[in-house]
Amino acid sequence: xxxxTFILGILLIxxxxxxxxxxxxxxxxxxxxxxxxxxxxxxxxxxxxxxxxKGRSGWEVxxxxxxxxxxxxxxxxxxxxxxxxxxxxxxxxxxxxxxxVCKIIASFKMRKLNKALPDEMKSxxxxxxxxxxxxxxxxxxxCFFEPxxxxxxxxxxxxxxxxxxxxxMIAASIMSMRMGH
Length: 181
What we know:
Elements: H1 2-21, H2 23-50, H3 59-76, H4 78-115, H5 125-145, H6 147-178
Helix pairs in contact: 1-6, 2-3, 2-4, 2-6, 3-4, 4-5, 4-6, 5-6
């Protein structure tokens, strides 16, 4: 089992590197993944209704049918998928900008606390937090005004996650092999 985990870790790293070099394509695949998940949820709602469990409503069938239609639109309609990806990029841009603003506000609170400390305990950590907040706001605004940049950022985050998961699997397999499992 450890060898399989090791090989899967290597494959994840290779896939993550591929995602890193094609961030836009990676983020565009999210609508396809969402579509499949929504189709599965729609089919599941219909199956649960058909199973006749108590407390089920006919609206679950409607929910299931709408989910299946929406899922198929995401998977097979490129315009719909592109629109979904653009909306996702804007949502991420707004979230990044809001996080940066919160970071800036927190840095002012840190500055106030820093002033109350004795001189030997004071630090410039608040200034670092303030600068990071400004940089995050700038990144969020760039993503907002350039949605493709936001989509690329999502692609890079996915790549990072896949690569780090691969590294984690390799480390776990090595530990498992050393323990004799």
